[in-house]
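Contributing new records

If you add data, match the layout below exactly. Sequence lines come first and carry their own label; structure lines follow with theirs. Keep one chain per record. Anything else will be rejected by the validation script.
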Amino acid sequence: MEENKENPTDLQNNLPPQPADTDTASPKECAAPVKRWLIALTLVFTASMFSGLYIIFAGSASTCEEPVAAVETPAPTPGRAQSLLTNFFKINPGGEEGAAVIRVRGIIQESSEGGFNSRQNASSIARRIRSMADRKDIKALLLDINSPGGTIGSVQDIYDAVLYFKSKNKPVVALFRDVAASGGFYIAMAADKIIAQPGTMTGSIGVIMQASNFEGLFDKIGVKFIPIKSGKHKDMGAFYRPMTDEEMALLQEMINDTYQQFYAAVKAGRPDIADESLRVYADGRIFTGARAKAIGLIDDLGGEEKAREYLSNLTNIKDIKILSPRVNDLFDIFSLSASSLDSKLMLEKVEELSTPKVSYLWTY
């Protein structure tokens, strides 16, 4: 009788399916708890961030003791959450009269991008000044400046906003910190009084345009730019070629025009300085605060306490309170909190070198 032999591989293929190992979880089942933890941590972090922002911006704006109100039947009040959100975006939820302080820091310009890499926006500063001018509880403005200046349009935007504030019959006192030069000095010309420390660097009345020429470098590395333009002056000031004499004359004409605008603002703000003297001082030179006072470019020497004295005298409010304005929206929060971040310094420096800019700026 012939023996029935089967291939071992066939026997293995014919085996019934084995039950799955119940002790081993699938990747999806493993990932589910991790995902839930990540969501929970994200929510906790978000809540903590907004709590911190509230403490920083809302808590720091309180002044001294709140006045005792007369006893009366309380009006219906919104819920606590609504009150917190409402007060967060107000300068003075208590309604106490005082002077708003607007701080101008660093180069005055429009930020090229939003988020945490953005610098302090000139338009947001101007917008806050105008909003302070329309508040009944704000009786004056302290313009706190520590800036070497900036681009012309941005500087003039803030200057116009200060004039708007004054048009509401509210005085403005400018306080200079370490530096208030060129465009920083320009915006102070709209103020009623200017205070600086003896060693403050100020002045630099003038305009500068910095253009670069990388033609020699590009020749060495074999790079050539071929512009296609609608007119011969369309690429005037380009970094890949030298300027012609005609182009230099056109740019100088523009510089002279913007300089006259600066000079007119200084003359309007410092009318007691004789024109012949002002022409001498308005050649771009820098002054200490002590020298600026002797010339008449500022009114007094001192710090914040001296500025408060002037604000009290101008408003007839004894011991006037300085109210720190809170930001108007979340974009301003992130812009202001990130104004000192320089994560893209090298890229920005290259951009500044390659793009001609006309500025009221003290640079060296």
